[in-house]
Structure formats: structure tokens, C-alpha cells
Amino acid sequence: MPDTHSAAHAPVKASDLFVAALEAEGVEYVFAVPGEENLDLLESLRPSSIELVLTRHEQGAAFMAATYGRLTGKAGVCMATLGPGATNLATPAAYAHLGGMPLIMITGQKPIKKSKQGQFQIIDVVSLFDPICKMSKQIVHGNTIPALIREAFRTAQEERPGAVLLELPEDIAAEDTDTTVLQPHPRHYAVAGDAVLNEAAEMIRNAKMPLLLLGAGANRRKARSALCDFADLTRIPFFNTQMGKGVIDERSDLFLGTAALSDGDYLHCAIERADLIINVGHDVVEKPPFFMEHGGTKVIHVNYKAAQVDQVYFPQVEVVGDLAQTITRLGEILGGPLDFDRGYFERIKKETDVHIAEGADDPRFPIIPQRLVADTRKVMDDCDIIALDNGIYKIWYARNYKAYQPNTVLLDNALATMGAGLPSAMMAAQLNPVRRVMAICGDGGFMMNSQELETAVRLGLNLVVTVLNDSSYGMIRWKQAHAGFADWGLEFNNPDFVQYANSYGATGHRIARTEDLVPTFEKAFTAGGVHLIDVPVDYSENQRVLIDELAAKVCLI
């Protein structure tokens, strides 16, 4: 009679066990720049169901993995070697940590049982990443792999999501184990209790001018249906943070705008007049959409976790629990439309809409931001996706580009790093092959990871990359001018972007007239494949609109 117990626990190579545990977690892709310390794991991936996506830089791998986590709710996985490979993951780790994106980073290491090369390339990677990760661990025995991977995915994906690092030394990867994988199970969040829900409902009923604020957390957990129903039921006007765009369709008559700035915008006239803000899914790591003051507007915090108190954020009531179920229950308690005067908010909306529409058909060339945003919106359907790198144009898109669906405007307003726009757009295109996807990058940010064009072409993606060309670090240059400093030290020369794109096997285009932008967008999307569009941009409107005009603005009485 066969020994079934022994057969069930036959020795398994640790790297094979590692990959089996990834498969049990439902991992589809591993984005990687492997090194020699990853070779056992690489060989174990070869016959697996997991697709290896080779990138040209570790940042590209990790930004793609983080965006996978952002769009799916499941942790994205990336892999790098020890030393310089691992340190190149630091910026994406911080990106995921602050942005609330579930990310698993796997790094290699020299053997830990017996030294082969002294301290060559060895740094304490685990300690280095500890401050910017939810969990950072070295695997010291193959038998611990199933538990550590299960815990890594649970930790990365649980609210508030973030980054996890697992270091797999090459001698541990090569050893035999005698254990099996642990199967994941669904995570369910509790609903806030009736006592606090009734307290919140009473505050809302007593408010004379309440507003609803939607933050990044509302985009993460697919709370659109519940929040749409809540807004329709109560008729409370809403606004959002940059990372909360699209949770509710921004064509709604209740939408007042996006808080692209912390204060001083047209939207802030409404925020300052409000006596209660229902803040759903907002994290203080996002640039503040408003500043709380003692004795000022009251705030109800609705989220999966308690509020992180800050000098500008100290809510009076905290409604903690599953976001969608909690907001649904709150709506049931309120029971119907609230009776309050919406006249002031309606006037602010009209004024804001007029302001946003200005410049949408301006023929000047180089193109101004208002026209750029308007032309982009013309060619993108409701479910199409734009992914923004970081620069002054991000403010223009946050303010002027209306999002109609969740996660159709991918921007980073937490770490706000340059270099993430192209890889994040690539991930969106890979997950959504039939939707139009556009990366929008400044020339500075684009060149930080422009080598990933080769990866995009190799993957056969359909992707338009719009490069806004002003031959400078434009946002810092604008801040420099606003501070009264000399215009110095921030200009550079660019390559010929058309030839640059063509050299990777993409198709390059250069805009020579403003009226050519929309036809070029359409031509690129219709053709399919990877296209780069070089767009000369004129940022002189930054000063007039974002500084002078807002400074002169007087809120309606």
C-alpha cells in the first residue's frame, strides 16, 4: 500500500513552492528585471501559468505591478535582483505605499548560509524598505514560504493597501522543502454600527449646506453604485480629490468640481460655505482638498479605517467599516432627499463650468493646456483611460477633464513621482486591450522611463503616448517664476521624439498646428499599436489662470 502521507509531502524545491504559492494567490504576471540571484525563481516561473513581463528598468516593472494592483484590487508582483536592482524599487515602493496600491516586490540576495563573495553588492534591503512598506521580510527557510506569501498578499491587499517586500536568498530558493501552499480566502469588512450611523445621519439632517467629498479609497473598492445611489437619494452636491475622480459621473448636475488645489479655487467658495463635509474614502496622504479649522466646517469621516489625524484634518465623527455597505446603510437611515437650500452651490457650479470651458477651443500654437485637455476629452469615450505623469499639466487635467467612470483618470497625487505615467498606462492597456488608453507625460517625466517604449512594443500594446514638449522642468520653472527667482537652471534639450519612437518600433508623430491634434489622436488610435505624439505646449496660461485669476476671484455672496 503506498505511503500517501509521504507522497503528499514529497520534497519540493523552494522556488517551485514559491511559484505555486503565487499561483494559488491568482497571480497573472510577474514584472521583472531578473539577476543571477533570481535564476532559480526564474526557472520555476518558466513552466508555470504566470506570464513573465520583462521590462527595461526595475522602476518600469514595479510601476506596472502597482498599477495592476490599483486597477484590480489584487496585489501586483514584481521581481528584481539584490543591491542596485532592489534599490531601484524604492521609488515605486513609496508610490504604492502612499498611493494605496497593493504591491508585492520580490528581491534576490546572496546565500545567507555560507558567503560566496564577501559583502559584494550586499546591503540591508529589508531594513531599507521597512519604512516604505507595510511588511518587509527575508525568507530564511523554504518551509516558511507558504505562510509568508499568504501573509504578504493579505497585508498588501487589506485596507489601507500598500507595498510588501520579500527577499529570497539564492541558497534558500534552491533548497528542498516539505510543506504545501496555503489557499487564500476572501476578506470581508464589517459594516459600521447603527449608533455611529445614526449620529452621522443626525448631523447630516441638521446641516444647512452639506457637501459630499469622494477620495481615493472610493475608487479602490468599487463603491460607485452605492455612492451614486446615495447622491441621487439625498441630492447632496459632491466634489472629489484628484485620486477620487470618476467615482460618480462628473457630468452629474450635483458635481461641483475636483479639488486640484488645496484652497483658493472656485470650488473652495462652496467648500468654505458648507457647514458639513461627508468625507468618503479620503486619506491624508492625498494633497489636502481643503483645510479644517477649529470652529469651522464639521467633517464626517467615512472609510475602512479610522482617520489619521493631522493639523488640517480632525473629523468630528468617524464612520468606520465597509465603504459601500456603510454608505448604503447611511442612505437607508436618511430615507430620502434632504431639505436644504442648494441655490449657492448651483451658482458656484455654473461659475465653475464657465471658467473650465474657457480656452477649450483656443487656436494658439504651441497649444495651451485648456485646449489640450478639451481635445483629449473629445477623443476618449466614457470607459477610456488616461494615465498622467507628474507636472503642471496634471493640475489642468484634474480641474478641466471630467471623468465619467472610476479609474479612468490614473494620476498620482500622493508621492507625485515623475516617471510613472508611461508604465502605468502600459499596464492599463494590457488589462484593457479594447479600450483607448493614453499616457500623458511631460518631456522631463517621459525621459525618466522612456526606454519602456520597447517593452510596450514587444507586448503588442495599443497605446498612445502624448509627450508635452516645453524643453524644461515646467512645473518647477513656473514655481521659480512665482517665487520671484531668476529663470535659470531648469531647461534642457530633447531628442527628436518622432525618430526616438520609430527607433523602438513605435510610430512617432509631431504636432505642427493646434487643429491637427484631434485628427492625429484619432489616426493613432484607429491604427493600433504604440504611437508617440510630440505636442509643443505653451504654459504661459499657468500664471494668468492659476495665479492671477484665482487671486482676483471673489466668491459669490
Enumerate how many helices there are, as a single number. Answer: 24
- Alpha-carbon distance between the two ends: 89 Å
Coarse shape: globular
Which strand order do you get reading across the main beta sheet? Answer: 3-2-4-5-7-6
Low confidence ranges: 1-7
Number of strands: 20
Largest β-sheet summary: 6 strands, parallel
The averaged pLDDT comes out at 94
Structural class given helices, strands, pairing? Answer: alpha/beta
Strand content: 15-25%
Q: Tell me roughly what share of residues is in helical segments.
A: 25-40%
Gyration radius (Cα, Å) is 25 Å
Account of the protein in words:
The protein has 557 residues and is an alpha/beta fold. Helices cover 40% and strands 17% of the residues. The strands form four sheets. The protein has a six-stranded parallel sheet with strand order 3-2-4-5-7-6, sandwiched between helices. Strand 2 (29-33), helix 3 and strand 3 (51-54) form a beta-alpha-beta unit. The protein is globular, with a radius of gyration of 25 Å.
Question: What would the keywords be for this entry?
Answer:
six-stranded parallel β-sheet, globular, 557 residues, disordered N terminus, 17% strand, alpha/beta
Brief summary of the model shown:
With 557 residues, this protein is of the alpha/beta class. It is built from 24 helices and 20 strands.
Question: What is the fold's blueprint, element by element?
Answer:
Layout: H1 4-8, E1 12-13, H2 14-24, E2 29-33, H3 39-45, E3 51-54, H4 58-72, E4 76-80, H5 84-87, H6 90-99, E5 103-109, H7 125-129, E6 135-138, H8 145-157, E7 163-169, H9 170-174, E8 176-177, H10 194-206, E9 210-214, H11 216-220, H12 224-234, E10 238-240, E11 255-258, H13 266-273, E12 276-280, E13 298-303, E14 317-320, H14 323-334, H15 343-357, H16 369-379, E15 385-388, H17 392-400, E16 409-410, H18 421-431, E17 437-442, H19 443-448, H20 452-458, E18 463-469, H21 474-482, H22 497-503, E19 507-510, H23 517-527, E20 530-536, H24 541-552
Parallel strand pairs: 2-3, 2-4, 4-5, 5-7, 6-7, 9-10, 9-12, 10-11, 12-13, 13-14, 15-16, 15-17, 17-18, 18-20, 19-20
Antiparallel strand pairs: 1-8
